[in-house]
Amino acid sequence: MPLYRYVKKENRKRFSSRKKGFNGKIISIQLVILGLFLFGNAAYPIVSYQLLVSPRFSNSFISPSTETSVSQGFGISVNEKNNEIISPISDKVLGSELDFVDFTKASNWYPDEKTELPQEGEIETYYLSIPKLNIFDAKVIAGDDLKKSLIQYFGTALPGKYGNTVVFGHSVLPQFFNPKNYTTIFSTLPTLKQKDEIIVKYNEVEYRYLVENMLEVSPTDVSILAQRYDDSYLTLITCVPPGTYLRRLIVRSRLSRI
Q1: What's the rounded Cα separation, in Å, for the pair 188 and 171?
Q2: In whole angstroms, what is the distance from residue 149 CA to residue 138 CA?
Q3: What are phi and psi of 28, to 5 degrees?
Q4: Is the pLDDT score of 238 beyond 90?
């Protein structure tokens, strides 16, 4: 009867390599899933905007002529409501085409050619609120750096005065929206609708504007910078779809008389 029994030793190196290969496969799968999640997280807002939101503005998108585009943007004037024939559009339209580089600089959104329009003194800092978007007392200046404030375009009307006050704001993907961060502040601007309220505090006076029209234009369409002096208008501009610079969203509002 044998006193010893021999057992074949297991190849630990082979087992170890199998285990390592198995773990590597799991890590690869996890990385693929993470990549798909990140891609979907970035793509979903853009796709949903194109399918669900953008069609609201399609009727006014890229008008064939500057005059038509301006007319669509402003809507019916006070005088037109009274059946009076007027020519409300200024023959000066600010800007010309430009190759954009850094979109956190307002000067890169539209041409740096400045056309001065009648204004009362220098533009001081004022504040803009959009209650529906939880934006309160956002700083507006006549500057260039969109990372530090909202920017009023040079040469456009002062708040509360006859003409068109044009304000630029930066936007990114809506999931990063922060109403106190000026690089994300206008990310949810497309959710506004007609009659939504915009409050401007300028020179110790509070002005209440109501949204009248929203449209999309090409990045080179400068008709939205035009002035019309039959009433007091406020135009907000940002980039769409969210997180891209393909088009410009224009939110046109009019001063509300109480």
Answers
A1: 8
A2: 7
A3: -65, -45
A4: yes
pTM tops 0.90, yes or no: no
Nearest to 250 by CA among 153, 167, 149: 167
Look up residue 135 and give its amino acid.
I
Name the pairing type of β-strands 135-141 and 126-130: antiparallel
What's the rounded Cα separation, in Å, for the pair 200 and 165?
11
Give pLDDT tens digits for 174-206. Answer: 888 999 999 999 999 999 999 999 999 998 899
Distance, CA of 71 to chain centre: 22
Per-residue pLDDT, 141: 92
Cβ 200 vs Cβ 159: under 8 Å: yes
What is the distance between the alpha carbons of residues 158 and 252, in angstroms, rounded to a whole number? 15
In degrees and rounded to multiples of 5, residue 165 shows phi and psi of -85, 120
Sign of the torsion formed by the C-alpha atoms of 192, 212, 61 and 96: negative
Domains for the chain: give ranges and CATH numbers: 57-255 (2.40.260.10)
Instruction: Please tell me whether residue 181 adopts helix, strand or coil conformation.
Output: coil
C-alpha distances (whole Å) from 244 to each of 45, 61, 103, 170, 192 are 11, 17, 10, 11, 19
Reported as half-sphere exposure (CB side, CA atoms, 13 A), residue 152 has a value of 25
Query: pLDDT at position 35, please?
Result: 73
